[in-house]
Design a protein that fits this description.
- With about 475 residues, this protein is of the alpha+beta class.
- It has four domains: about 55 residues, no CATH class; about 110 residues, Beta-Lactamase (2-Layer Sandwich); about 80 residues, Helix Hairpins; about 150 residues, Heat Shock Protein 90.
- The protein has eleven helices and twelve strands.
- The strands form three sheets. The chain has a five-stranded antiparallel beta sheet. It has a five-stranded mixed beta sheet with strand order 7-9-10-12-11, with helices on one face.
- α1 runs antiparallel to α5.
């Protein structure tokens, strides 16, 4: 499906689409009203019913009978009546809309409305009569006086298209739409925005979830329209949760199963090494030992990653002296640093306490320091520093290795991701484990260049006790 067109004002906006739908509905209602007006105009004969036209005709005939002996005054009175009728509905002199009249005394025409249709001779009294005059249809109503031979004929156009064009030309059809639409847009937009508030609350509930929070959504079940979406998302979360559980179980089982044969292999290789061997054989044995160490490290990282993923609301948390813990871990890792020809340096204040899981923090420290040792060149120093302020305890691990390009600072936290130009072997899990532990402790992890722009500096900011 193509992306929404950018030139469309409401492209990609559900609110905009709903507002347009409301405007479209208003347009349809207007068209329906116009259709009704056309239909009603086509059958608009009721205006000539005697109950409507009779009183008007009686009024005119009474004037004629009262002023029959005063021709001048009668002519003036009939002209005023005619002018009133033509201006009654602001119809002025439009032949398609106005009410015209003929007043007769016997066969003598006393008065007729100027313009079309002129003098009209009718036969029917007190009922509608349709006439065709000069090719145009007209509707007439005639009534005779009970006191004299006077007769009045009221005339309206019967040409429906002309009536509709005349009405349209006055804006009677279009003006209500043009006037109302601008005033409808803002209320329509506001009403749609208010109506969609549950959708926004629903999206905020989803947005607030962390990567480890796969519990079913709650808010969407309150509204009928949101239930299908909520149900679909919850089914997806359930499938993801089940898939991740199967994945963790498989990796944990495989890692546990691998530990025993790897340990046995290492014991056998070390025993073989102790019996002495030719220089070429010793090189092969050393290679086996190094491969075994890498395999054991990968197994340990997989188990650490599974523990990080699984945990942990249930994992015990307590106040941990981070300075003492870092010092212990550096002592454990010093043999690895000695083999690599790297010096470890610790800069820490007397007390840096955090509230967290001891095992998770051990995994975080070990992975950061081991990575730094692995990539630091021989003869260089890996610096581990702790600092404290009112809110945070900051752990910094800095090495003089090749560093990580800024463009990859986000990618390196992905599981099993390794940059293409890495010279050192590895699994791509170390920083993923660090990130998982940091997220669980509400900590922030940042990467940057080391001192002088060389190497890598990893900074972890943990909430202080």
């Amino acid at each position: 499906m193509s992306a929404p067109r950018r030139w469309w004002p409401f492209g990609g906006s559900l609110v905009g689409r709903l507002v347009l739908a409301q405007m479209g509905m208003a347009l349809l209602l207007w068209l329906a009203a116009c259709a009704y007006l056309i239909w009603d105009t086509a059958r608009y004969d009721e205006i000539f019913e005697p109950r409507l036209m009779g009183p008007r005709a009686d009024m005119i005939l009474n004037v004629v009978d009262a002023l029959a002996d005063q021709p001048q005054r009668l002519a003036e009175a009939l002209e005023k009546i005619d002018r009133f009728q033509r201006r009654e509905n602001e119809e002025a002199d439009d032949p398609a809309l106005r009410m015209a009249m003929n007043v007769w005394s016997g066969s003598r025409l006393l008065y007729r409305t100027p313009g079309e249709p002129g003098a009209v001779h009718t036969e029917k009294l007190r009922q509608l009569e349709r006439l065709d005059i000069d090719g145009k249809p007209w509707r007439t109503y005639s009534q005779a006086s009970a006191k004299s031979d006077a007769r009045v004929t009221l005339i309206r156009s019967g040409h429906v298209p002309s009536i509709l064009f005349a009405i349209g030309g006055r804006g009677i059809l279009v003006m209500p739409l043009l006037v109302s639409l601008p005033f409808l847009i803002l209320p329509a937009w506001l009403s749609v925005r208010l109506a969609l508030r549950p959708w926004r609350r629903f999206s905020r509930e989803i947005e607030s979830r962390g990567p480890d929070d796969l519990a079913p959504l709650q808010f969407g079940s309150r509204y009928r329209e949101l239930r299908p979406v909520s149900r679909a998302v919850n089914l997806l979360l359930e499938r993801v949760r089940a898939g991740m559980a199967r994945e963790r179980s498989f990796i944990a089982d495989a890692a546990h199963e691998l530990r025993t044969p790897l340990a046995a292999m290492r014991v056998n290789v070390e025993a073989l090494q102790a019996h002495g061997a030719a220089p070429r054989d010793r090189e092969l044995i050393d290679g086996l030992l190094r491969s075994g160490e890498r395999a054991q490290r990968l197994v340990a990282q997989l188990l650490g990653l599974m523990r990080s993923d699984a945990g942990s609301a249930a994992a015990p948390r307590a106040e941990v002296d981070l300075g003492a813990l870092v010092q212990d871990r550096l002592a454990e890792l010093s043999p690895l640093a000695d083999r690599r020809g790297v010096e470890l340096e610790l800069l820490a204040p007397p007390a840096c306490a955090v509230h967290g899981e001891r095992e998770g923090l051990v995994s975080l420290i070990d992975n950061l320091v081991e990575n730094a040792i692995k990539y630091a060149p021989a003869g260089s120093t890996v610096t581990v520093a702790l600092a404290r302020d009112d809110a945070d305890v900051t752990l910094t691990v800095e090495d003089a290795g090749p560093g990580i390009p800024p463009a990859l600072h986000e990618r390196v936290f992905d599981r099993f991701y390794r940059a293409a130009d890495q010279a050192q072997p590895g699994s791509g899990l170390g920083l993923a484990i660090v990130k998982a532990v940091a997220v669980r402790h509400q900590a922030r992890v940042a990467l940057g260049p080391g001192t002088g722009g060389q190497g890598l500096r990893v900074t972890v900011s943990l909430p202080a006790c």
